[in-house]
Amino acid sequence: MTDATAPAPTTHPRWLLPVLGALIVLLVIATNVGNAVWAGWVESNPIGLLALNSSNKYLLATSVNASLLPFLVVGTLRLLAPDPLFYAIGYLYGDRALHWARDVFPGSKQLIEQVHGDDGLIRSVLNVLVVIAPNNLVCLIAGATRFPIRRFVVLNVIGTVGRVLLMWWIGLLFEDQIESLLDVVARYQQWFLIGSIVLVVAYVAWQIVGRKGLIGGVEELEEELGDE
Predict the structure, then answer these.
(1) Is there a contact between 225 and 96 (Cβ–Cβ < 8 Å)?
(2) CB atoms within 10 A of CB 78
(3) Whole-prediction pTM value?
(4) What pLDDT is attached to residue 4?
(5) How far, in Å, CA of 227 to CA of 181, rounded?
(6) What is the 8-class DSSP label of residue 6?
(7) b or e along 13-22 (b: 16 or more beta carbons within 10 Å of the residue's beta carbon)?
(8) How far apart are CA 163 and CA 131, in angstroms?
(9) What is the per-residue burial (b if ≥16 Cβ within 10 Å, else e) of 144-162?
């Protein structure tokens, strides 16, 4: 059994962690704004919605109203945006980043435990996950295990482009059904907007007050990872 994480430097520039945290906060804000305004933008400004939030549901919803090239470029860049930030946190802060991640990402314990198991196994798992599910946790673990950065970039880009194109294809396949749903959204747009805003505000408040999830976790980033 080996420890998959390599020793991380003990000190880093004082400005680095606040900058990484600030960029993550900006992306979290964009995601939640997208969740709040989606009903008003999904038809009138589909590319703007994807720039805020390119989750699968919005990729599908905008696929019938957006041109392929901007859809592919904006969707890919938005999905990739947080990945180097979490890779950098894992790479620079090693075990401390993994400890922070346990409290921030629900259900992360099993995957994180594998990091301290068989080095070959976790790298094999990451070869697959970086392509099919390069979420924040996976990118952080990739950094913490010193997953080769060139391989990380190549696999991540290939997987993300493939994901966006898959959503485009599914959108074309179910175009009639998606347009029918969008007609319902347009008919009751005001209520969807109000409901979305209320849900987003309540969810963000719950995370801040309870110090839960990524929003609550960012508040503890400096405390958990700051150099002593």
Answers:
(1) yes
(2) 24
(3) 0.87
(4) 57
(5) 50
(6) P
(7) eeeebeebbe
(8) 9
(9) bbbbeeeebeebbeebbbe
Tokens of 64: 């019938």
Structure-token match 């969810």, residue found = 203
Q: How many residues does the chain have?
A: 228
Per-residue pLDDT of 11-48, as tens digits, reads 677 778 889 988 998 999 999 999 999 999 999 999 99
Name 211's Cβ contacts closer than 8 Å, sequence gap at least 6: 217, 219, 220
How far, in Å, are 12, 117, 137, 227 from residue 93 at the CA level?
A: 9, 19, 14, 9
The DSSP output letter for 88 is H
Structural tokens at position 93: 């802060």
**Measured distance CA(28)–CA(113) in Å, rounded:** 27
What is the DSSP code (8-state) at residue 212? -
Among candidates 101, 86, 155, which has minimal Cα distance to 125? 155
- CA 219/CA 202 separation, integer angstroms: 18
Q: What is the DSSP string of 147-180?
A: --HHHHHHHHHHHHHHHHHHHHHHHHHTHHHHHH
